[in-house]
Amino acid sequence: MRHDPSNNNLRNLIIGAEQKIPLSDGTDVTAINFDNAATTPILYSVLKEINQFAPWYSSVHRGAGYKSKVSSDIYEQSRDVVQSFVNSDKERDIVIFTKNTTESINMLSFVLSQQKSHQKVILSTCMEHAANDLPWRNKFKVDYVEIDSLGRLSIEDLENKLIRYRGNVKLVSVTGASNVTGYLNPIHKIAAIAHKYDAKILVDGAQMVPHTSVDMKGFDTLEHIDYLAFSSHKMYAPFGSGVLIGPKRDFEEGNPFVQGGGAIRLVTPRHVEWDEPAGKDEAGTPNIMGVVALTAAIKTLQSVGMDNIYKIEKALYDYAISRMKNIPGIKFYSDPFKEDTISVIPFNLEGVYHHILPLILSGEAGIAVRNGFFCTHPYCERLLGLSEEDLNHYLEEDDDLFPGMVRASFGFYNNYKEIDKFLSILRKLAENKEYYINKYSNDLSLNQIKNEAGLCTSFSNFGC
């Protein structure tokens, strides 16, 4: 009898884990969330902390009242919790609270663009989310580290490009874990190579931080992570809070990304004196509820143990992969047996359009997955083997359905029983494609599909 790594105690940490939802036949079933890479559910501990704090809720850094002081103290203490979670240097680094990873990276790109330096090149990679690609394009020369046929990052190409640019690379900007393939990149090895050539490193930790332990390491090591960004909504906490961590000195000069109240020390008709970081970069009323939620989530994840979370999710991943490969017509878009990966599975079922498959899984079994390009267009284009000519064709031909893939992603609270149900409906679908396609094709709208695919923008791969 197999051991289920996600036991009832862990499942009981999650709000809505046993929530009933309707199927297409009108019956109810317990919802199964395999879309954790997009947004995770909420922890009970987070809601409890929010409710306990709510009576004390007040403005942060704005008032002399008792509640305002309490709120301000909690807000500032949360920075220590975040830094301890990722082993950030509490003397030299600062924690800036943002809305999410996307805002964090946009903020960093703005800050770095103001620095006077001969270094004008950003090395991104061909596997980045749009949030770690687009913010750099209009401020720097951007080049992309290559990937192999299975979408794995080429460390050799990274070093070759650093050599080629001869000290002009300002930053290597890389995802810690891919939101498409789940690959964990060797961030400390990448950091050591980047520092060897006088470049810094930013790690987009949105998909990495919730699933495995992260250590930014000390400033005195080549493996040090200079900048780290991540989001609470992928860490079982609502209310839209994000984090940017980096050296305080890098945020002292120049103008802040967002300007307004809270970011200033003194304003006259002709002069502005900005506050010190991190206040300088947190204009407006801080999202104290979001920060309280994030801090509570971190404490719960630490109590479960990040190494334990990784082992649980990897066991679920291995179980699903080993059985999915036996279903006729399943095609994977990653190396399914790569060891360094989080629990993300990109796939398609031959003969079933990627937009219909999630509708079938939801309507027949209450299973939520994601489909499309996952805001990681150049990477998915490469994995699907699409050329620039192919993409232009799909943009111009309204009658052709745009390609994509399906993504299943697990959390530590998921279990084998849920995966068995997932496998069962996939087998039924593989054996009865015409029936299910006809049943759910009426739910499709071509305009809806194209809008959801994000076809309002150019799909140029910019070197990827």
From TrEMBL:
Catalytic activity annotation: (sulfur carrier)-H + L-cysteine = (sulfur carrier)-SH + L-alanine
SUPFAM superfamilies reported in the protein's UniProt record: PLP-dependent transferases
UniProt keywords, alphabetically: Aminotransferase, Pyridoxal phosphate, Transferase
Cofactor(s) listed in the protein's UniProt record: pyridoxal 5'-phosphate
Ranges of residues in domain Aminotransferase class V: 32-422
Keyword Metal-binding: no
Cited InterPro entries: Aminotrans_V_dom (IPR000192), Aminotrans_V_PyrdxlP_BS (IPR020578), PyrdxlP-dep_Trfase (IPR015424), PyrdxlP-dep_Trfase_major (IPR015421), PyrdxlP-dep_Trfase_small (IPR015422)
Domain of life from the UniProt record: Bacteria
GO molecular function list: cysteine desulfurase activity; transaminase activity
Keyword Protease recorded: no
Family: Belongs to the class-V pyridoxal-phosphate-dependent aminotransferase family. Csd subfamily.
Identification of the protein by name: Aminotransferase class V-fold PLP-dependent enzyme
Highest classification ranks of the organism: Bacteria, Bacillati, Bacillota, Clostridia, Lachnospirales
